[in-house]
Amino acid sequence: MSQLSEQTCEACRQDAPQVTQAEIEQYGAEIPEWQIVERDGIMKLERSFTFRNFQQALDFTNRVGEIAEEAGHHPALLTEWGKVTVTWWSHAIKGLHKNDFILAARTDEVAT
């Protein structure tokens, strides 16, 4: 279990700061399988997970949905046969917040 996954998400308001480059490096070290991608000028965390079949992919999608609901913070989920791509970012600030890294770490945990 990573230290990030044990932390609590905080409400992310429009005036909340995005993570700094130093924070990206610090938090990213705990979730090395995640990639930072930029889409439409917005930085996001993304990782694809592979499974043996569609049912396993769907079950994982539902587990990620549960942690998202608990935290009140929701990712983009693309569920395909044997694969789920999870993308975290904070809509309110149009970028990355510490919450995204916390939930990426929790996503890794439900994948195991």
TrEMBL record:
It holds the Pfam family Pterin_4a. It is an enzyme of class 4 (lyase). One of its GO terms (molecular function) is 4-alpha-hydroxytetrahydrobiopterin dehydratase activity. SUPFAM superfamilies: PCD-like. Its EC number is 4.2.1.96. One of its GO terms (biological process) is tetrahydrobiopterin biosynthetic process. It catalyses: (4aS,6R)-4a-hydroxy-L-erythro-5,6,7,8-tetrahydrobiopterin = (6R)-L-erythro-6,7-dihydrobiopterin + H2O. It comes from the Bacteria. The keyword Lyase applies. Keywords: Lyase. Belongs to the pterin-4-alpha-carbinolamine dehydratase family. This is Putative pterin-4-alpha-carbinolamine dehydratase.
